[in-house]
Amino acid sequence: MYSSEVTQASNFVQGVDTAFLVILGISFLFLIGLTVVMLVFIFKYNKKRNPKATQIEGSVKLEIIWTVVPFLLTMLMFYYGWAGWKPMQKAPKDAMEITVYGRMWNFSFEYENGRRTDTLFLPKDQPIKLNLVAMDVLHSLYIPAFRVKQDMVPGLENNSMWFEPQKVGTYELFCAEYCGLQHSYMYTYVKVMEDSDFQSWITDTTNVAASATEIESPVATGKRIMQNIGCFACHTENGTKLVGPSFKGIWGAEHTVKTGKETRQVLVDEEYIKHSIYDPNADVVEGFSKGLMLSYEGQLSEDDIGNIIEYLKTLK
Fold first, then answer.
1. What pLDDT, on a 0 to 100 scale, did the predictor assign at position 76?
2. How many domains does the chain have?
3. Locate the Cytochrome oxidase subunit II copper A binding domain: which residues (predicted)?
4. 146 has a pLDDT exceeding 80
5. What would you measure as the largest C-alpha separation in the chain, in angstroms?
6. What one-character-per-residue DSSP string does 297-308 give?
7. What's the pLDDT tens digit per position in 37-89?
8. Do both 85 and 149 map to the same domain?
9. Which residues contact 45 (CB under 8 A, 6 or more apart)?
């Protein structure tokens, strides 16, 4: 169930909204004011009412007014923008740290105890620091309800953002930087819980893979995982050739692969699937290019790969 009330969903909502409303109000003030002045001048000084042009001398007072007033309004907008931005720059020392991995085309979240999910679970009223790691290209993590957004730059160290969730609920999280063909697949949720519920969840070791979107069927779970990590952007399910070989009929079949300079036949089984996910450029299927797929080692667990295999078995 999604939260319909997102006001004050985080500690930055008021500052960002105030800056937005101030800038929007001043913009509308000038839009309406200038439009009214133009209409008045068009009516008052048209050719019929003023057939002979008259020379108007400059006014020092007027020059000062329309220089000083816009400057003050600009400084007012700057102040509210700066006041909303400044607190975002330094996370509290006691903030809970979560590492966010962004890759084409999904987010994954790793907690301090090693637990990893594809939904961001957070405790209410506790500062959260997200350490942002881009695995391939430029991404941008955006949580609209929290009014926070930060670019994820490959190779950039100490890249982070912080906030404090203040309302229990489920909120959208997505990538705000176009990052390739399946950019729209980089879409997930933030689930904010009471601290007691979060502590029960984070310390629950009976099902490390638990998440709000978990599905009991291994086949369905495998397909969901593949959708989340963008597999279907490069591989089809119907036999059509894309960037990589189709998944249709791949399970149990033999394929010709290039291993270094050697060409050999391999059987697509559990070991081959696991090896292809963790080291995709070791055995490249003949007719396809090397270097187009990055390793998912550390991103997918043994259970994830097991679910993926169960799904591949169904694509006869």
1. 95
2. 3
3. 93-204
4. yes
5. 92
6. BTTB-HHHHHHH
7. 999 988 888 888 878 877 778 889 989 998 999 999 999 999 999 999 999 99
8. no
9. none
Shared domain check, 196 and 105: yes
- Phi first, then psi, for residue 246 (nearest 5°) are -70, 150
Q: Are 186 and 172 in contact (CB under 8 A)?
A: no
Domain boundary among 172, 202, 232: 202
296 compared with 119, residue with greater pLDDT: 119
Distance (Å) of CA 4 to CA 81, 120, 164, 168, 173: 27, 18, 19, 11, 15
**Three-class SS of residue 64?**
helix
Q: How far apart are CA 82 and CA 147, in angstroms?
A: 15
Specify whether 74 is located in the same domain as 132. no
Say how far apart CA 181 and CA 96 lie, in whole Å.
Answer: 33
pLDDT exceeds 70 at position 211: no
Q: What is the DSSP letter of 10?
A: B
Spell out the long-range contacts of 61-69 with Cβ–Cβ below 8 A and sequence spacing 24 or more: none
11: three-class secondary structure by DSSP = coil
Q: Please indicate, yes or no, if residue 131 is contained in any of the structural domains.
A: yes
pLDDT of residue 93: 93
Residue 290 lies in a domain: yes
Give the residue, 242 or 131, on which the prediction is more confident.
131
Q: Domain holding 111: CATH number?
A: 2.60.40.420
The predicted pLDDT at position 231 comes to 81
Same domain, 300 and 223: yes
101 and 84 within one domain: no
Identify the CA nearest to 87 among candidates 127, 118, 124: 127
Residue 230 has pLDDT above 90, yes or no: no
Task: Provide the CATH number for the domain around residue 276.
Answer: 1.10.760.10
Average pLDDT over residues 16-43: 94
Dihedral sign, Cα of residue 63, residue 69, residue 70, residue 71: positive
Domain membership flag for residue 4 = no
Q: Does any domain span residue 281? A: yes
Residue 112: domain span? 96-202
